[in-house]
């Protein structure tokens, strides 16, 4: 007799997520990658927008965490490029600034959340979980 398959536990569901971290600050990028990997996510990292877009071309992440202020291509431009490529995953923005125009631009292009730096890791972890749940529906 075939057993009925149980839905995945929250931990199993969480562990299925693929996250891309985009931040020009090496210490922040490393901290986020380590934290998210400890949470069970598959994590890739990029130090700038161009590198992030190249990684997205290789494999679509479920969640993109992107710094708003980066040299070259800022977070808004990264998000705009992702949306132009029909990326439908979750985007979470990080910022140390209060530039209202950039914050509003991130939200208008569909960023699920904008978080201040220094990053509250527990809040970020919760936002990633919510982002994964949204992208699965």
CATH architectural group: 3-Layer(aba) Sandwich
Mean pLDDT: 88
**Regarding CATH, which class?**
Alpha Beta
Q: Biggest sheet, open or closed, and with what strands and sense? A: 5 strands, parallel
Unreliable residue stretches: 1-15
Number of helical elements: 6
Note the beta-strand portion: 15-25%
Please describe what this structure looks like.
There is one protein chain. With 137 residues, the chain is α/β, with parallel strands linked by helices. It has a single domain (17-136), classed as Rossmann fold (3-Layer(aba) Sandwich). It is built from 6 helices and 5 strands. The chain has helices at residues 10-15, 26-38, 49-58, 75-84, 100-108, 121-136, and strands at 18-22, 42-46, 63-67, 90-95, 113-116. The chain has a 5-stranded parallel beta sheet, sandwiched between helices. The model is unreliable at 1-15 (pLDDT under 50).
Can you give keywords for this protein?
alpha/beta; Rossmann fold; five-stranded parallel β-sheet; disordered N terminus
Write the layout of secondary structure elements.
Blueprint: H1 10-15, E1 18-22, H2 26-38, E2 42-46, H3 49-58, E3 63-67, H4 75-84, E4 90-95, H5 100-108, E5 113-116, H6 121-136
Parallel strand pairs: 1-2, 1-3, 3-4, 4-5
Compact overview of the structure:
By secondary structure, the protein is α/β, with parallel strands linked by helices.
